[in-house]
Write a structure and sequence with these properties.
Number of strands of chain A: 0
Radius of gyration of chain A: 19 Å
Distance between the termini of chain A: 55 Å
Helix content of chain B: 40-55%
Number of strands of chain B: 28
Structural class of chain B: alpha+beta
Shape of chain A: elongated
CATH architecture of one domain in chain B: 3-Layer(aba) Sandwich
Shape of chain B: elongated
Oligomer: heterodimer
Number of helices of chain B: 26
Largest sheet of chain B: 7 strands, mixed
Number of domains of chain A: 1
Number of helices of chain A: 3
Chain lengths: 62, 806
């Protein structure tokens, strides 16, 4: 039964990993705008000739 | 979201903006309505940006009223530029613009490809819902002025006003709430998982090994919920108590605290497993309710005052040289230059030029007013026509218009005078709860002292008014969303509830009851021949006067004749030679001359007289149009509301308005902005709960003073004064449905309160007997929350359907 201790520990670690990922995603601004990215993804067809790299999000400083 | 014009053939409409072409311009096999639209197309096609036209049809913004390039000279001012920038170093500068004209996917695409038009822009990103454009650029190679000029030349003029210079404190609250929900959700899920075996019962072997472990894991997982996720409830409960105000947060905080304390004690002392799952679940659901209530209409601003309307800078003449000066540093005695379509920022005396000032935003009256030299022109007017020179006679903040904001009504944030249902209930609820808790504790002290503390804490845990706390946010949040879909935008959810208590409606006239742009136009006397119409149309096409524009629209003649000479006399009319004919178009007294006195005049309407070759042919009459369904709206509201009218105009329309309003003494004319404010305060003194509906800056005081201010606007992207509600003017007919809907929403809250009370009684009946098991609580709490959430959202939506809302 001692395997249970390892299993519980692993499952908790895994869950904490997801929580960290969630917090990171909020922090990096992924939840700020839930509309524009859905439109932006469709622009790829129009941008094919263009080889400029993907636009990075701007962080507001100061 | 996107505006499509699929059903319109390209030959009639501008390829760029989709407007009907009056004078057709050709380029690249496409049609354009004006030079501006064509030059935008040229610019885009030269830079391989024609995908703009493939994503949406006719995505452009009409370029018929181009902005002068000198208009942005103030952005070269280092101080102004630094105030706008978010970040700046040697190589990079970052700025966020609010672009109100952004409206479709093509806009997003073009704005994010700005680097093709100006290679020094390194990065452009749109936040569509907020209509924001985030830009980074190289400040050594390009300037803010160049970028703004570029944006406005392609139709995306950013809104830069006094307000955008005052740095707003960035709100991080929203993010904190999301973290809190994330943490609470994570802990709730894991605690549930770990508590499961305990519910199903463990055998003696596993009991000894795991029970303790599970208990401690739950305790550890609960700490972040207790300390981080739930902290706002403790803070607001404490603040409430200090102000001697019992909010719903008091029993909630009490419940959360007792739950955590008792569970920790049970786990550490080895008595049991505690209530950690209920604890985490409760906090999680509460936070979801809070989040649901936080919906805001990002693109709308409910707090706008004259600062969002006034320009940032103005041209000042000093020692015969012109320079741009920030409006805030204008001093008395400064000589300012106001060009066509610019706003007069401060009360000033006219020194030079023909002033024809459009006060439509201040008074609602759309017809420009002519001013003579030496006359004082009040701030807030917009010059139409030639450039004028003025001398400032009052500081911006002390002008006739802006001093309204010095009134007490603006001094403090208005507190809602009406106690919300939830506040009222939670006060009684808290006292009843404490009574029951102490009552059962003292009973058990005599009967079986072991159970006393048990029963006391169990009461506080089970009666924690989670479902009650959720009913208002979900009902009001849903109502707010539904009303928003119907273009009735509400500042905060509690406004929905307050709307239900109102008993008095006060309307502004111009722009609120009448349509600002549309008016009934008709031609009187003889019928004009096609040739004559053509002559008139050619002349009015030369003028930017709104009446001329309306006549032009009415005549619907697109081919313009060659004009030999043209002169516009400010405040009077136009004289022109066209095709060998002499035309005079303008005001009655001016065109008719002495003959004017003999004819009876209709005061209700604006009249424009036409004379061709010195023969008066007749006049155009423009009658202000009342909103469609006005009579119906006022009639159906009269049963439940007192209706008043406040108008800044004189009483020439009194007779007309009497048809709509039943009582003559409810109509008030010649009201100044502060009169309106005082009138509202007077009504409130007599215990009326007042809704004010207005549209202009002159209503700003009344809107602020009223219990609820509704600003009516033709275009939500445009300026509207500070208010609680912004209503799209096209929805005016629905006003009775909106008000009825708010009352129905309140009923939903009442019913959901009863439902949550039933759950509480069931739980309490077990708790006072001291026999409440953690398992039962773990089921009852989520069940009651889910029932209340489902009931409120579904029934609110049904109420909306019944009331004819979308």
């Amino acid at each position: 039964m001692s395997i249970m201790f390892i299993l519980i520990g692993t499952s908790l670690l895994l869950a904490i990993g997801f929580l960290t990922a969630f917090i990171w995603s909020v922090k990096s601004g992924q939840m700020d705008d839930d509309y524009t990215p859905s439109v932006r993804i469709l622009f790829d067809d129009f941008d094919k000739k263009d080889n400029k790299e993907i636009i990075e999000p701007i962080e507001i400083k100061k | 979201m996107a505006t499509k014009f699929n059903n319109i053939t390209q030959t009639d409409n501008c390829y760029h903006c989709g407007d009907t072409c009056e004078t057709i311009l050709h380029f690249d096999n496409q049609w354009f309505c004006c030079v501006g639209c064509r030059s935008v197309y040229q610019l885009l096609s030269q830079n391989n940006l024609c995908s703009y036209y493939d994503i949406e049809n006719t995505p452009g913004i009409t370029q018929r009223n181009p902005v002068l390039s000198t208009a942005y000279a103030y952005l070269d001012d280092e101080k102004v530029a630094n105030q706008l920038l978010n970040y700046r170093d040697e190589k990079i500068a970052k700025v966020i613009f609010f672009v109100p004209t952004m409206h479709c996917s093509s806009c997003i695409w073009l704005l994010e490809h700005l680097y093709k038009l100006n290679p020094n822009i390194s990065n452009a990103k749109v936040q569509f819902m907020k209509k924001e454009l985030h830009l980074s650029y190289n400040p050594q190679k390009t300037t803010l002025r160049e970028i703004v000029t570029l944006l406005s030349s392609i139709g995306y003029e950013p809104a830069i006003n006094l307000n955008s210079l005052e740095k707003q404190v960035k709100k991080d609250d929203n993010k904190k709430l999301i973290y809190q929900i994330g943490v609470a959700g994570f802990c709730f899920g894991n605690i549930m998982l770990i508590s499961f075996p305990e519910y199903f019962g463990l055998d003696s072997f596993t009991q000894s090994t795991f029970s303790k472990l599970f208990g401690y894991i739950n305790l550890i997982l609960s700490i972040p919920v207790f300390l981080f996720s739930a902290q706002d409830y403790f803070i607001s409960a404490w603040q409430g108590i200090r102000k001697k105000f019992i909010s719903i947060d008091v029993p909630l905080a009490l419940g959360i605290f007792i739950m955590f304390a008792r569970s920790s004690y049970e786990v550490i002392s080895g008595h049991g497993i505690g209530w950690f799952d209920t604890h985490a679940g409760l906090v999680f659901f509460l936070l979801i309710g809070k989040w649901f209530q936080q919906k805001t209409f990002d693109t709308l601003s409910f707090e706008r005052d004259y600062k969002s309307y006034f320009p940032v800078a103005v041209t000042v003449v000093k020692d015969s040289s012109e320079m741009t000066v920030p409006v805030t540093s204008l001093a008395i005695g400064d000589r300012i230059i106001i060009r066509n379509n610019e706003l007069i920022p401060s009360d000033a005396i006219l020194l030079k030029g023909d002033a024809s000032v459009d006060f439509s935003f201040v008074t609602g009256e759309s017809e420009p007013v002519a001013k003579v030299l030496g006359e004082i022109i009040y701030a807030g007017g917009r010059q139409k026509g030639a450039t004028i020179e003025l001398e400032v006679c009052k500081k911006v903040s002390q002008s006739y218009l802006t001093q309204l904001w010095n009134n007490d009504a603006f001094a403090k944030d208005r507190q809602s005078h009406i106690e919300s249902f939830q506040q009222m209930v939670s006060r009684y609820f808290t006292f009843a709860l404490l009574l029951i808790a102490f009552g059962s504790a003292s009973y058990w002290l005599f009967v079986n002292p072991v159970l006393a503390l048990n029963a006391f804490t169990a009461v506080l845990i089970i009666a924690c008014p989670c479902a009650l706390a959720l009913s208002s946010p979900f009902a009001l949040g849903t109502a707010m969303r539904i009303l928003g879909r119907n273009k009735f935008y509400i500042k905060a959810p509690n406004v929905v509830e307050q709307l239900a208590h109102m008993d008095t409606l006060v309307f502004d006239k111009t722009g609120t009851l009448t349509q600002a742009a549309a008016s009934n136009i008709s031609f009187h006397c003889i019928e004009l021949s096609i040739e004559q119409k053509q002559l008139v149309a050619s002349v009015v096409a030369q003028s930017i006067h709104p009446l001329s524009q309306k006549i032009k629209g009415y005549l619907q003649i697109n081919q313009n004749l060659h004009i030999d000479s043209f002169e516009e006399v400010t405040g009077k009319g136009m004289i022109a030679e066209v095709d060998g004919h002499h035309l005079q178009i303008g005001s009655r007294n001016w065109v008719l001359g002495i003959a004017a006195k003999e004819l009876k005049q209709n005061h209700l309407a604006s009249q424009v007289y036409i004379s061709i070759d010195n023969e008066v042919l007749g006049y155009f009459e423009l009658q202000q149009a009342y909103r469609t369904g006005l009579a119906k709206v006022l009639n159906s509201l009269r049963k439940t509301y007192n209706e008043y009218l406040l108008s800044g105009d004189n009483d020439k329309e009194k007779k007309e308005l009497m048809k709509f309003f039943s009582k003559e003494n409810h109509l008030h004319f010649n009201q100044s902005p502060s009169d309106k404010l005082d009138f509202i305060k007077g009504l409130q003194k007599d215990n009326n709960k007042v809704i004010m509906l207005g549209d202009g800056l002159n209503d700003a005081g009344a809107l602020k003073a009223a219990n609820i201010g509704i600003s009516v606007t033709e275009n939500t992207a445009h300026f509207s004064p500070a208010s609680d509600v912004i209503m799209d003017a096209s929805m005016f007919e629905q006003l009775p449905s909106f008000l009825q809907f708010s009352k129905n929403t309140l009923k939903v809250i009442h019913v959901s309160f009863i439902i949550s009370l039933i759950y509480n009684i069931i739980g309490l009946s077990l708790a006072i007997q001291g026999t409440l098991s953690p398992l039962f609580a773990a089921i009852l709490m989520p069940l009651s929350s889910v029932t209340v959430i489902a009931f409120t959202t579904i029934s609110t939506t049904l109420m909306a359907k019944k009331g004819g809302l979308q």
